[in-house]
Design goal:
Blueprint lengths: L1 H24 L1 E4 L2 E4 H19 L7 H10 L3 H50 L13 H28 L3 H4 L8 E10 L2 H35 L5 H18 L5 E9 L5 E10 H14 L7 H5 L2 H14 L2
Antiparallel strand pairs: 1-2, 3-5, 4-5
Amino acid sequence: MIKIILKLLTLFTFFLMLTAQQGCQTTSTMGGKKISAKEEVKQKMILEVQTEIKELGATPLTESEAKYKGKLGKDKYIKALQDQLAELKAEKEKNKSEAKAKEEKEKKEKNRTKIIESVKKEIFFLGETPLAEFEFTTEDKYIAALRKQIDELKKLKEEEELKINAAIPDWYQSMPKGSETVMYARGSAISADLDNSEQRAVENALIKLSTQMQNRISSKTNLVIKEAGIDADLTLKTEMQRISSVVVKEATIKGYKIYNTKMAPVANGKYRTFIVIEFPVSLAYRNFIANIDDSVTLKAEINKLKSTDAFKELEEYVSEFTGT
């Protein structure tokens, strides 16, 4: 029996030693006092949460506030006060929402009135009378109808403007007839590019100028040849015709100027250009005479050519042009 008691005492002593050892391992010092590992973790968590609350600009609850608020929350009077406060807050929020909705409604109605007046003015500006408001059940429908009316009016105005733009100008139809010293030619073209429209119109005018110039120079050339009495000489006639062609070609490259032009948008996003060019025929005559003087083929007959009335007339036109 004694042996059994001693054995139990030994085991109990060993157990106490183990317990003391574990107690040492799970405690630490905080503020001069020993605390358990669990308490240490708890304090750290509290500190972290308190820090975050402070960073948000609020004051953390004390332990007393946390403890008693939970218990006193069951008090009927406090509960009634809290319910009253909640109702007051809800009512205030409701009134605030209603006031905001009313303000937005009034603002919207005011904007509608401004829009209606603005659209009406635009319709009046387009020369038409706005639709009557009583024909529509709501202002929104009335505004939509007015805008549709504007779109239709603008479309009609645009079509009218395009027709006007596409109309042939009077000065294009009745351009100057020209004279012995000046010649006119016209051309028009349509293109999606404004510059290309103008360039093609000029090219078309130059083609017509070339035809007119060819007829004019050929007529003068034949007259000079006939008066000089060399119309039977095929070589001389061929040379004179060559010079005539050179002069005409030069006339369609340089020397002309724009007499009048009109560029305007037409349907499908394109542009139409009307143009009339002016060319001093005397400049062509001067080039014609200069080419004759430089021709080796005509050198032997140059005096005959220059002695003709037709050639002298050309020289007079050149003199008038140059002022000499």
